[in-house]
Amino acid sequence: QVKLVESGGGLVQPGGSLRLSCAASGSIITFYTMGWYRQAPGKQRDLVAGITSGDRTNYADSVKGRFTISRDNAKSTVYLQMNNLKPEDTAVYYCSLARTSDYVPFGSWGQGTQVTVSS
Description:
Oligomer: single chain
Largest sheet: 7 strands, mixed
Number of helices: 0
Strand content: over 45%
């Protein structure tokens, strides 16, 4: 069973940047599609970005041009580079294994990492 641990969150001012990491253990993730998801208070957990085993990427419209998802299979790690952050990006960010067809997550969630964008 894959265990996922997210890190890299924090408090940042609007316009700032953060790089989130998702480290996987227990199984290799090379052949899996991976996704980053976020959940703001009182809202559902939504897809932010996904990346297939072939490095095809998909982004939510709200983050296109600002966020970049990448993966390092040798390190079993998936990254989310977030630039030009906005207050509406404030949420807990999670990574997950995902279905390639529609990025619906499956498996266990990690603890998430809090991102707060505020001046």
